[in-house]
């Protein structure tokens, strides 16, 4: 949210600065001919800004949706792993209990934190390795149990891969910072042109303020969608809670 307010301050400040500088700009620079040229130039910049903002928003939304699907798939794999272990037999009770405890711990931490910090997302913790090791140590007595053990090991590996992927994505960003900086710079130019030719009355100032809030809100949405595991718009833990309701049954 801080970035959104910074963008608002910079963009709206550009308009107010240009409005205050209007008194010192030579009158012939503010004539109709100059105004027409400025309008054409700003139209080009506005078009480029709209295209890049659309691109950034689509990229952020695509990244958010991809991470949400990956998390949902990981939650489904937890249920699959539990079901496979249940079919194997009572020997897997200990590893199933360990799996459920890890998910319970994860749900509790999500509910008490502003960030999406799940133990199940941390591949370096001992629990995932312990679950895999206990499955590997099972001693199948027939072909059916060997098949179930192999399926459980494969699902555990898939879970580990999903954890690594989500864990790495938490530190990364789908939004190139140079793109964002350039867009904000373009917006500052656009609003400065508005302020330069606009009369300094309350209606104009309020209108520029609302417009600045709108564009900064768009940047805010882009940054929130890009940071899928924290902030206001973050990935829901509902799939994990739904998985927890089926574990151990």
Question: Main attributes?
Answer:
249 residues, mainly alpha
Can you tell me about this structure?
The chain has 249 residues and is mainly α. 77% of the residues lie in helices and 0% in strands. The protein has 8 helices and no strands. The chain has helices spanning 2-21, 32-88, 93-111, 126-136, 143-171, 177-197, 202-226, 238-246. Helix 2 (32-88) packs antiparallel against helix 5 (143-171) and helix 2 (32-88) packs parallel to helix 7 (202-226). The radius of gyration is 27 Å and the shape is rod-shaped. The two termini are 42 Å apart.
Strand and helix map with partners:
Blueprint: H1 2-21, H2 32-88, H3 93-111, H4 126-136, H5 143-171, H6 177-197, H7 202-226, H8 238-246
**Which percent band covers the strand fraction?**
under 5%
Rg value:
27 Å
Shape: rod-shaped
Helix content: over 70%
The low-confidence parts are none
Q: What structural class do you assign from the helix and strand content?
A: mainly alpha
Query: Treating each run of at least 4 consecutive H or I residues as one helix, how many helices?
Result: 8
Biggest sheet architecture:
none
Instruction: State the total count of DSSP E strands.
Output: 0
Ends apart, CA distance between termini: 42 Å
Mean pLDDT, to the nearest integer, reads 83
Write the element-wise H/E pattern from the N-terminal end onward.
Answer: HHHHHHHH
Oligomeric composition of the shown chains: single chain
């Amino acid at each position: 949210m801080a970035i959104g307010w910074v963008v608002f301050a910079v963009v709206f400040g550009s308009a107010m600065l240009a409005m205050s500088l209007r008194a010192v700009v030579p009158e012939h620079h503010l004539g109709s001919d100059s105004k027409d040229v400025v309008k054409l130039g700003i139209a080009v910049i506005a078009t480029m800004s709209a295209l890049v903002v659309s691109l950034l928003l689509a990229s952020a939304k695509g990244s958010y949706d991809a991470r949400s699907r990956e998390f949902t798939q990981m939650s489904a794999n937890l249920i699959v792993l539990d079901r496979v272990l249940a079919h194997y037999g009572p020997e897997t009770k200990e590893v199933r209990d360990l799996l459920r405890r890890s998910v319970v711990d994860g749900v509790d931490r999500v509910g008490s934190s502003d960030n999406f910090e799940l133990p199940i997302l941390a591949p370096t913790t001992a629990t995932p390795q312990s679950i895999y090791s206990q499955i590997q140590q099972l001693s199948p007595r027939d072909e059916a149990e060997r098949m179930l053990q192999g399926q459980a090991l494969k699902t555990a590996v898939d879970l580990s891969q999903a954890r690594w992927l989500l864990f790495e994505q938490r530190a990364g960003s789908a939004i190139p910072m140079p793109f964002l900086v350039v867009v904000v710079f373009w917006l500052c130019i656009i609003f400065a042109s508005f302020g330069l030719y606009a009369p300094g009355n309350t209606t104009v100032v309020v209108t520029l303020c609302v417009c600045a809030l709108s564009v900064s809100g768009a940047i805010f949405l882009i940054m929130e969608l890009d940071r899928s595991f924290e902030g206001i718009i973050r990935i829901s833990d509902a799939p994990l809670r739904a998985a927890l309701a089926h574990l151990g049954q």
